[in-house]
Amino acid sequence: MASKSHKNSTTTTTTATAASTMDVEKIFHMNGGVGQTSYYNNSSLQKKGSDKVKHVTLETIEQVYVSTNPRSLGIADLGCSSGPNTLSNIKEIVETVGKTSRHLLLPEPEFRVYLNDLPTNDFNAIFQALPDFYCDLKKERNHAGPSIYVAAYPGTFYGRIFPDNSLHFIYSSYSLHWLSKVPPGLYDAQGEPINKGSIYITERSPPEVSKAYVDQFNVDFSLFLRLRSEELIVGGKMVLIFLGRETPLHIDRGNSFFWELLTQSFSTLISQGDVEEKKLDSYDVHFYAPSKEDVEEAVKREGSFVLERLEMFEIEKEVGDINGGGMKMSYGRRVAMAVRAIQESMMTHHFGGAIVESLFEEYGRLVDQEMAKQEIQPITFGVVLRKI
Ligand SMILES: C[S@@+](CC[C@H](N)C(=O)[O-])C[C@H]1O[C@@H](n2cnc3c(N)ncnc32)[C@H](O)[C@@H]1O
To answer: What are the start-end ranges of the H helices in 28-122?
Structure first.
């Protein structure tokens, strides 16, 4: 989080920027392990979303494999996290290439699989799941499984991760809406927050707030494209799945509305004296849901990729047991658990851990209350880019 207490404008801007950059990389992580509040047990919404564009992912890897026909296929998952989704996505990609090679009577390539996330990610949980993953791949092929080499590459995807021209295919699901930092433009020259009382773009936010978010997205997304273009071979492709918004308007009944409900949950805690108003004023999420136009323009401006496909979709509301947790819960509670698994590290760092339980209980209640009035679903983008 950016700091507020600076004496002069030069120091303020520099310090605020540096602090927000450093904090995200060092603090932000999904809840690890396999407990009730873990990302492992609260990532079924992301699974549902990536499943909706699975056909696009598998078609794309198939095209890359057929057009490049490499002996050694390099695949990366950026923002892989540590849930069940990580290896299940890779398994399907590997199986698709295997089937295609048999169908076309081509030799099956060896697979180099690179799993990337921030260094704070629970990579150990993935490593521990690897023996079963290898076993499953072999079982389905009568013990003649593919040659597959899995490695972890910790680091931010807003920096270089892989050697030049080493990858054929990049996959990333529900990660790229996370910016590299809280936009520094959310602070004025005196270091005062300009988005007081909100944690993302809301109707109360001054216009400088959406500008600060757009500016940060443009810097980050363009850097991401340039870096990936150095790592991918020509003709290599990326399938990027991330949260977006349906129209150019910043306030929508999708992603921004969910952040607004989280802000309202904070207001309840403030009225109970559990959170200081000033603490909320200085908290903003390092998140941005771009519009289709934001993405199209950024790709065009950067120039290393052709945008082959951009699909927008909603994840239908689901009810029932949470993924692996074996508990019945309302939709609102499920959304609250999913957001908690993602945001708890940042919120605990800023507000302390004592408020987390009551905050997300209130948030789940508000989501259920709003959903009873009308269905609000976040928008997801499925994007395919080819390196030129
Ligand atoms: C919601 S999880 C998605 C995990 C998984 N891909 C899935 O679909 O379930 C988002 C992941 O992106 C990672 N992430 C966010 N910003 C990142 C960055 N700058 N570099 C690398 N990973 C990042 C987070 O640490 C987190 O594990």
So the answer is: 44-52, 54-68, 84-103
Indicate the pTM of the whole model.
0.91
Nearest CA to ligand 1 atom 27: 81
State the Cα–Cα distance between residues 178 and 182, nearest whole angstrom: 10
Q: For 9-59, how does the pLDDT look when each residue is reduced to its tens digit (9 = 90+)?
A: 333 333 333 334 447 888 899 898 888 888 888 888 888 899 999 999 999
CATH code: domain of residue 133:
3.40.50.150
Residue 244 belongs to what domain range? 9-387
Instruction: Calculate how far, in angstroms, residue 81's C-alpha sits from the geometric centre of ligand 1.
Output: 5
User: Does the C-beta of 244 come closer than 6 Å to ligand 1?
Assistant: no
% of residues, the chain, pLDDT over 70:
91
Q: Give the closest residue (by CA) to ligand 1 atom 8.
A: 173
Query: Which amino acid is located at 106 in the chain?
Result: L
Q: Tell whether 4 is covered by a domain.
A: no
The count of other CB atoms within 10 Å of the CB of residue 313 is 15
Q: 122 in ligand 1 pocket by Cβ < 6 Å?
A: no
